[in-house]
Write a structure and sequence with these properties.
The complex is a heterotrimer. Chain A has helices spanning about 10-15, 25-55, 60-85, 90-125, 135-145, 145-180, 185-195, 200-210, 225-230, 245-270, 275-280, 285-315, 325-330, 335-345, 350-360, 365-380. Chain A has 16 helices and no strands. Helix content of chain A is about 75%, strand content about 0%. Chain C has two domains: about 15-75, no CATH class; about 80-285, MetI-like fold (Orthogonal Bundle), CATH 1.10.3720.10. Helices cover about 65% and strands about 0% of the residues of chain C. The termini of chain C are close together. The chains are: A mainly alpha, B alpha/beta, C mainly alpha.
């Protein structure tokens, strides 16, 4: 039963199925079966199509079909599930429907994140090989190992500096760019650009800034030392200067992340209705007042979202500090320790314990978020 | 409430069914192999995938050899392909533990092969039908013993390179009238001579991004072999001989003689961690030379600047001289097998054969040396690599060749505490040595 | 919303257009300075990508400004090498086949979920949402092994579907979080009146919420596309690294030698891979238009 929806009008499906069922039970069974079969058939169809197409000789056709199947499939899935729900007995319908909307997300999250998180949690109580339980030994390691403790201190520095600077710069830039008549997207694109550079590219970019060659090893190829030399100073091994090297590494993250904050905040600023701002201006509000009293309150929730996302991203960063040897330069961070112990030092238990610690460390930020959502719900 | 739960349940059931259904019709596909049949080998599946740590031109060269010499050969009914990744350590762990191991993995660290054997993932060469005595005839006992676990062998050597090489600028040596030293005393005398003549003897660079420090561990290993000998070296690798022992301390002190003697090291020993190992040899070729000597493995010639330097004419090497003992430091790769079938076995047979290895040696731009002793030095693209191959073969034959210790030690030490300890040493000088050696010992895993 | 606007304490002078003109110039200046600061590293990369390997290694990239028109120091060879590298076209196609569905699928799924979390009533709604955002923290690297275990047991490894679903799973928490934040603040009067008109949830979602959420959808699309496009870890694990299936970033990364010798190729490769995400950014820019939600002020 496919019908064209004509805007937001009355849905005739409800009317048709709203009539009292005449032969309840068998029809109900049939409908439940239909509710199950439709999504399954959709998924299986995607799978079969993909299997078939991936074995084709012509790569171009494969790719086109893959995109069509992937993009179309997911829409088809929801449409099919929603229609399936319509086959359900009326009294079940509206209680099942929310699960149709969140169901796919939940299933994927359980499979891709909850299960691995649980797996990691179990691993964190086990030894290096994951072959025997060692109790809290790995957690003791997390809180006693000297490098671990330093990584925690460094990470605290990172989550204070990076999100704050990125959001302030990103917000300021989004606001100012919003006032430009022309060139707005060009200016924003240039701030956004670093996000598009792959990590390998970014690490080279910053080598051309921070690189250091002592006397006798050729000309400086890092910009900072180029400036030092031009000023008649001795070149400096920037990434070896503890503890300032941490700040220099944070600069890289700020450079890469500000574009994220700017784009999201920019979208939020565009969402502040022009008429409210105009009304405020007509009422005689100055531009700073419009900013603090109108724009900021309107986008406050987005600012929190961006700060939260950046804090989490910063906590998960590890490859930036690989620009130098973190262990010799005192630039360890938590996620870098996790990668180190899990993948390099072959101690699954410690790596997992650090991952769990990372998870727990972020909970306060999450709780703040949840409170805010509750408040918003309440006033809506 | 009741119907709500039922709705959710129905949905979960549906998904479970989907997953089950998908599992049913797919397991027979190529990705799901892994039957380790120790009796006769399983029939081949038509492909052999080889995974390793080297990428770039080296990977291209190996693939070229595989395509020309193996995939295209008569009677070969499978397609083999090598893929390399910078993040090999992460990748191989994920793939093996995730149940999607490659057919063959080429490890730069023999210790990892033994770990895979201990975990029951790798397949013993004996179970593949190899005659170990025959393999020992091809590679020598030592290389094969690196992949040994509980009496069985798990690693086939696929590549070696020579680390005991000291490079020098031929023209600068001729101009100054210096000759390559044959003994340690001559080397020190030469260094003093260079200082007396107003030059700087050594270029040393320990920098290597996240791996900063490793070039210093090579120095330590070379000196350990030259001072304490192969037996002490073997005990050092297993931590029977701790870092705080007299032997290791002596080696560090000998290294310190080079590192900390005034005027020996360009820029000074404490600057060496800031100098990228790729940039370190460059001053050797400036005019006048910034330094005259550079100790580094054979691959370093790929980084010599300016471009166009000719092996043998512009630069040459002499073996790292003996002090009290003889030794040759090498590094390389061991291949471990994860999925045994007839194709994999046939591929390995062909890949390690002298013909294929010889063909590989002639490819430009790479410095892979075959561990197969039947591959003559004339197989290599230039005379220097051939010479290095001869040094390795002689070392293996005399039982004096030893594998890079940091690659054999547990990674918490071998690519952790050992690296950082050496950087500490370079930066803080001889006074800090005792504390540093104790710290490295403390990092050794207890179990 | 009236609370937001306070009566002015200071009367704004009537400088009028002169002041506006001045402040516009100030804005332009600030933007100019920030852009320059942000551009410096990228410019260094761009210049280096046109230099010979030897030049990159022996002199600073800024030295080119001293003799800008000396032809000898410039080369297109790096780009030629990158664009003609074996399997480049194939890798590009693979990247599209991975990136497009891996962007659209999570956005779709997250939008449905965000709608349900905002506007539908079901038990456990708050807690489920909390759980979803808490999952933002799970490090992707720790998730790869367990997922690969599932994949290898059902034979999904090497299929596009495997990568799509993995990217979807990893991208969902952020997508749901961002979209819930946006969709949840749509005026409730709008949704309510649509309900009163008899529209069902599917219709409200499809006809009302999606069109109103375009800026949020577009901004998330940009980032998801970016991450998926620049990723090679997930693709390498679930799709593989062999020539016929590998993605662009993987192919270009492979140009680099094991010891990191090929800076000149990596600089040009970085620009080649940047082209598509930047194009996506520009094409989605037009959805960031004021006015989409104007007029629909929440009451």
């Amino acid at each position: 039963m496919v019908q064209e929806d004509t805007g937001l009008g009355l849905d005739d499906r409800d009317l048709m199925d709203g009539t009292p069922p005449t032969n309840p039970f068998s029809v109900h069974i049939l409908r439940v079966v239909a509710a199950l079969v439709i999504p399954i058939a959709t998924l299986l169809g995607m799978w079969v199509a993909m299997n078939w197409v991936q074995n084709l000789e012509n790569r171009f056709v494969t790719v086109i079909v893959a995109i069509v199947v992937g993009v179309g499939g997911v829409w088809l899935l929801y449409w099919a599930m929603d229609s399936a729900v319509d086959q359900l007995p009326l009294r079940f319908r509206e209680s099942v429907r929310p699960y149709v909307f969140v169901g796919p997300a939940l299933v994927l999250l359980i499979l891709y994140l909850v299960y691995p998180a649980f797996y990691t949690f179990v691993l964190s109580f086990q030894d290096a090989k994951g072959s025997g339980f060692v109790g809290l030994e790995n957690y003791a390691f997390v809180f006693t190992d000297e490098r671990m403790l330093r990584s925690i201190r460094n990470s605290i520095g990172w989550i204070i500096v990076v999100p704050l600077v990125s959001v302030v710069v990103g917000l300021g830039f989004a606001l100012l760019a919003d006032r430009l008549k022309r060139m707005e997207s060009a200016a924003k694109a240039l701030i956004f650009l670093p996000m598009a550079i792959s990590f390998v590219g970014a690490s080279i970019v910053w080598k051309f800034i921070y690189s250091f060659r002592p006397e006798g090893f050729g000309e400086q190829i890092g910009l900072l030392n180029g400036i030092m030399v031009a000023l008649g100073q001795d070149p400096v091994g920037w990434l070896q200067q503890q503890p300032w090297n941490n700040l220099l590494l944070m600069v890289i993250m700020i450079w890469m992340q500000t574009g994220f904050g700017m784009v999201i905040l920019s979208a939020a600023i565009k969402g502040v209705p022009e008429d409210i701002m105009e009304a405020a201006r007509i009422d005689g509000a100055t531009e700073p007042q419009v900013f603090w009293r109108v724009i900021i309150p309107s986008i406050a929730s987005t600012i929190v979202v961006v700060l939260t996302t950046m804090t989490i991203n910063v906590l998960k960063i590890f490859d930036i500090v690989w620009l130098s040897n973190p262990e010799t330069n005192g630039t360890e961070v938590i996620a870098e320790r996790m990668m180190r112990w899990f993948f390099r030092n072959e101690h699954d238990g410690r790596g997992a314990a650090i991952a769990v610690f990372l998870f727990v460390a972020i909970l306060p930020v999450m709780i703040l978020n949840i409170r805010r959502f509750r408040r918003e719900e309440a006033i809506r | 409430m009741m119907h709500r739960k039922r709705g959710l349940f129905a949905l979960l059931l549906a998904l479970a069914m989907v997953i089950a259904a998908c599992g049913g019709d797919e397991t027979a596909d190529t990705t799901g192999e892994g039957g380790t049949d120790s009796g006769g080998l399983a029939a081949g599946d038509g492909s052999v995938d080889v995974f390793g740590a080297f990428s770039g031109i080296e990977a291209e060269a190996v693939n070229q050899v595989i395509t020309d010499q193996i995939n295209g050969a008569d009677g070969v009914e499978y397609t083999a392909e090598y893929e390399g990744s910078d993040s090999f350590e992460e990748q191989i762990k994920i793939r093996v533990e995730g149940g999607n191991a490659p057919d063959i993995a080429i490890y730069p660290q023999p210790g990892s092969v033994v770990e895979q054997a201990a975990d029951g993932n790798a397949i013993a060469l004996e179970d593949l039908g190899y005659d170990i005595a025959e393999l020992e005839g091809i590679f020598g006992d030592y290389l094969l013993s690196l992949g040994e676990y509980e009496g069985k062998h798990y690693g086939i050597p696929t590549n070696v390179n020579l680390k005991s090489t000291v490079w020098y600028n031929v023209k600068a040596f001729d101009a100054a009238g210096y000759t390559p030293p044959a003994t340690w005393d001559e080397l020190i005398a030469l260094s003093d001579q260079i200082v007396a003549d107003g030059g700087t003897p050594w270029c040393i660079g320990l920098g290597s991004d996240a791996a900063t420090g490793w070039p210093a561990t090579d120095w330590m290993e070379d000196i350990m072999l030259a001072t304490a000998g192969t037996d002490a070296y073997d005990r050092w690798v297993t931590h029977e001989l701790p870092f705080a022992s007299d032997e290791v301390k002596r080696a560090a002190e000998v290294f310190g003689e080079i590192l900390f003697t005034d005027g020996y090291v360009l820029g000074g020993g404490n600057q060496t961690p800031s100098i990228d190992f790729r940039d370190a040899p460059d001053p050797m070729f400036s005019d006048p030379p910034g330094c005259y000597l550079h100790r580094q493995a054979t691959f370093i010639t790929n980084f010599f600047d300016p471009a166009g330097l000719v092996a043998g004419e512009d630069f040459n090497f002499f073996p790292f001289p003996a002090i009290d003992q003889n030794g040759v430091l090498i590094a390389g790769e061991l291949a471990a097998v994860f999925n045994a079938d007839t194709d994999v076995k046939d591929f390995l047979d062909r890949f390690i054969s002298a013909d294929v290895q010889c063909a590989q040696g002639s490819i430009e731009g790479i410095s892979r040396i075959s561990p197969n002793i039947n591959v003559g030095s004339d197989c290599y693209r230039d005379a220097l690599i051939g010479q290095a191959a001869d040094v390795i073969t002689a070392g293996l034959g005399a039982g004096e060749a030893r594998f890079d210790a940091s690659d054999l030690m547990p990674s918490a030490v071998g690519s952790g505490a050992f690296w950082t300890g050496m950087v500490d040493y370079a930066q803080n000088g001889p006074d800090a040595l005792d504390g540093i050696l104790a710290d490295i010992d403390a990092a050794w895993p207890t179990s | 919303m009236t609370t937001a606007v306070q009566p002015t304490r200071r009367a704004r002078g009537s400088q009028g257009n002169v002041g506006a003109e001045q402040s516009l110039w100030l804005i332009r200046l600030v933007i100019f300075v920030v852009v320059i600061l942000w551009m410096i590293p990228t410019v260094g990369l761009l210049i280096s990508s046109f230099r010979t390997p030897e030049a990159i290694n022996t002199s600073g990239w800024w030295t080119v400004f001293a003799n800008l028109f000396d032809g000898a120091q410039w080369t297109f060879q790096n780009y030629q090498d990158v664009l003609s590298s074996e399997g480049f076209g194939n890798a590009f196609l693979n990247t599209l086949a991975v990136a497009v569905p891996s962007t659209v699928i999570p956005i779709t799924i997250a939008a449905f979920a965000a709608y349900a979390f905002s506007w539908m009533d079901f038990p456990g709604r708050q807690w489920l949402f909390i759980a979803v955002i808490a999952l933002l923290v799970v490090p992707l690297q720790m998730a790869l092994i367990p997922i690969l275990k599932i994949y290898s047991s059902v034979g999904l490894v090497g299929e596009f579907l495997a990568v799509w679903l993995a990217h979807t799973g990893f991208g969902l928490p952020l997508a749901t979080y961002l979209l819930r934040n946006y969709i949840g603040t749509l005026p409730s009067s709008l949704i309510e009146s649509a309900k009163i008109d008899g529209a069902d949830h599917f219709t409200i979602f499809w006809r009302l919420v999606i069109p109103l959420s375009v800026p949020a959808l577009a901004s998330f699309a940009i980032f998801q596309f970016l991450w998926v496009f620049n990723d090679f870890l997930v693709s390498l694990v679930f799709l593989g690294g062999t020539r016929d299936v590998r993605v662009l970033t993987l192919a270009l990364n492979d140009l680099n030698g094991s010891r990191g010798e090929a800076w000149h190729l990596l600089t040009s490769a970085a620009f080649v891979t940047m082209a598509l995400p930047v194009a996506v950014f520009f094409s989605l820019q037009r959805y960031f238009v004021r006015g989409l939600t104007a007029g629909s002020v929440k009451g």
